[in-house]
Amino acid sequence: MKQPIIIDTDPGIDDAAAISIALNHPQFDLKMITTVNGNVGIEKTTANALKLKKFFNSNVPVHRGASQPLMANIVDASEVHGESGMAGYEFEEVNETELSSTHAVEAMRDALLQSDEPITLIPIGPLTNIALLLKTYPEVTAHIKEIVLMGGSANRGNITPAAEFNMYCDPEAAQIVFDSGLPLTMVGLDVARSSTLLHEHVDELKDLNQTGDMLHQMFKHYRGDDFEKGINVYDAYTLLFLLHPEHFKVEEAHVQIEVQGELTKGMTVTDFDSEFPNTSVVMSIDPERFKDLFFDALRHAK
């Protein structure tokens, strides 16, 4: 039986890898893709989601969401992902007629309330849309199976020494999500850094299939953490964890978001000794196992 999911995203090169799996793997029933300001601005993240939809000839609707954080100033990661957000591959052009008109938050509410079974939310960008959903329509919580998010770190950050990018972009939204009482899984920097995709493995992607070739070209333009030795495909870990949780090391913790610290804004303060954990924190996976799971998942794409 397929698992119903919603992807909330800010594509983003590593987002493209996650979306490629979500759109094509037979174990997922992707209800929609919702976009958020993050790696680049909302117009570009939405265009990139539409480009991926077109690349895969998909009928999954794309809904545009929040154009700015709840309170924080806008930051982006165009120096990592390129000016367009998905540098390195020439996608077909898209236009707004291919975009579903309903705002992302309303679209998620409708899908959740109308679903016959709870849906898993997979936010792989800043948590603005998810926070707005939970605060505006609290009745949806009974229809959310769990939230498996990419973001945070139990150790050092990547945009600052303390903070991971998605949490830093909208810490107030992140705090709302971590205080929601919903089942949360934090797939952050720790697991990605435990299993960097080596450059030799990135080169193998080009011969996998059309999708592998597309990702290979973009990965060659991706300037993220640990670029000297390989690529950290952060967002893809959320889907791989849902497919194969038994291969990941997970620890329970109480996680709170620093929203006021001048030097620690966006930090995920992770207490593994708490008697009241609110989050499952994905810590690591064997690098060879990750590579095999990643390639196997992408083989379902064209």
UniProtKB/TrEMBL annotation:
<keyword id="KW-0378">Hydrolase</keyword>
<feature type="domain" description="Inosine/uridine-preferring nucleoside hydrolase">
    <location>
        <begin position="5"/>
        <end position="292"/>
    </location>
</feature>
<dbReference type="GO" id="GO:0016798">
    <property type="term" value="F:hydrolase activity, acting on glycosyl bonds"/>
</dbReference>
<dbReference type="InterPro" id="IPR036452">
    <property type="entry name" value="Ribo_hydro-like"/>
</dbReference>
<protein>
    <submittedName>
        <fullName>Ribonucleoside hydrolase RihC</fullName>
        <ecNumber>3.2.2.-</ecNumber>
    </submittedName>
</protein>
<dbReference type="InterPro" id="IPR001910">
    <property type="entry name" value="Inosine/uridine_hydrolase_dom"/>
</dbReference>
<dbReference type="Pfam" id="PF01156">
    <property type="entry name" value="IU_nuc_hydro"/>
</dbReference>
<dbReference type="InterPro" id="IPR023186">
    <property type="entry name" value="IUNH"/>
</dbReference>
<keyword id="KW-0326">Glycosidase</keyword>
